[in-house]
Structure formats: structure tokens, C-alpha cells
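One-letter codes give the sequence; the fold follows as C-alpha cells. An example follows:
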Amino acid sequence: MKITTVETVDVVVEVNVDIDAVLEEAEALAGDADAEHWRQAGPALTAATRVLEAVSDEAIASFPAWAKTALREMLTTQAARYTDKETT
């Protein structure tokens, strides 16, 4: 879509986006990150954090104990990767 105007115009657009395509794009950005281009991972990490933040406390409280344990272990393992090993 291309809109050219000299005045302020309100445009309402409805877009049908496939969540798998969004996740694949985020995964590709993160996968492109390396020591020299580490900022590539930023958008993917931001998106992942926003998704985690969106899960309500009420929803988390309704998870069975085994699921909470498994998720906590998974998240703890990933969080440990971001700890500066030189300062621990």
C-alpha cells in the first residue's frame, strides 16, 4: 500500500498475520546474531519477553504444579545463559 498526501489522513488497515510467520521471522533474527552482530537478537528477545509478560498471573496460577516446575526449569536454564560468567 502506498499513500501520498499533503494533509494528515487517518488510515485504518486490517492485516491478517500468521503467528507462525512472525515467530519464524523472530527466530531468523535471533539466528543471524553472532559475536559481531549481537544486536540482531534484540528484537527477538524483546518480542519473547513481551509474550511472557502477556501471560496473566491468573493463567500461570491455573497451571498444574508439574507444568509450572517444567516451565520454571526451562526459563531458569535460558536465563542462566545471560549471566555474565566473569562476575559470578
Helices lie at 19-32, 41-54, 57-62, 65-80. The radius of gyration is 19 Å.
